[in-house]
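Note to self: user wants both folds in one dump. Writing first protein now.
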Amino acid sequence: MKNLMRKTFFSMVVILLCLGVATISHAQAMFNLPGFSANTQPPNDDGSTGPISVSSALGMSSLDYFGNNYSQFYINTNGNLTFTGPLSTYTPSSLSSIGEPIIAPYWADVDTAVNGSAPVTYGSVPGSPDFNGQQAFGVEWNGVAYYASADKLNKFELVLVNRSDVAPGDFDIIYNYDQVQWETGSASGGVDGLGGVSASVGYTNGTNAQTYVLPGSMIPGSFLDSNLSTGLIHNSLNSNVLGRYIFQVRSGNVINTNVPEPGVLTMLMGMGVPFSFMLRRRRRLA
């Protein structure tokens, strides 16, 4: 009977581990909607778009972001969106000290001018069922290189969703990650895309009081796919989709739960010591 219980237990563990690996190792958080690739930013290093009107992008007059109403924004190649002007800074720093509002799905040294890199694309989708019928604007870094190599590529997406159905100026912010292979450009102290001053993820109005930095920001190795514990594709926030992090902006304030939720494999890894102990014990009893 004990042997049967052990075999059943270990079979369940193997099944859960397989499910976890299958689910996590092939993250598909990005929406990849055709509208999000309607416009292409020319290949560049540290560039930005011109001002994009909130009205044309989201069908609302302005976004209420920490009490300020913005009628336009800029997409910056280095993995972020700003409101008061373009941002060419390629090495991330403390979000609370940059002195300007920013939404940063992956602030690091993206270089789309490198041969082998995909460009940054962006555009709108009106009334998509993916967003409960609301208009959304997406930016895709779908296979982008770092400065100055394309031997590793990242795939991530920023989506803004019109939520003026809740209140004027309200919107949602969604960060999606399908692949994170690099974290740093060589001009930021990285070697082969790793180490140095690594990527930062979060948002801010430019001050300490209104800043959120995702745990693992600027800590080398934290966000990579190879990190099964804190890698961006292995966790989520306010979503049951791995690799997806959702923030609601209501009346100018960003609502979030502050702590990313781990995926199946991450939780099972936390039980690794008991598993290994039981495996060793089973071998002795066999």
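First done. Writing the second protein, which came from a different request thread.
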Amino acid sequence: MDINILKIASDTKNNKHINNCTHSTKFKSSICGDEIEIFLIIKNNMIKDFSYQSQSCIYCNASANLATKNFKLKSKDKIKDFFKLLEQYNDKQNISFPNEWKDFKKIFNTKNFTRKECITLPIKALKKIIQ
């Protein structure tokens, strides 16, 4: 296992419930049973706060942690652009992430593609709210 995945997942600062959230959703993987619940505060089309709680593998937790850190203070439109970028995720070629999303290179790469379902679970949950 990649040490970067462990480091990212071990940061539990945003692994919490936001009591005054404006949006929340739960999402469960039909493949492995991982489950994640995300909590958002959205004001003026911008994510002001973002947290999660999960019963999931380390890949899902790493992805959720990166999402909570990188999507705070971003507009919904900006995040939709990120969703479009992730449509390129495959096992043949790494995504060329712009500087703004460079942290995601650590997990969204060809060597982790077999764990795609786990890695994309937090993003799928977020899409339920943002779309």
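Dump finished. Worth passing along: The chain has a mean pLDDT of 95.
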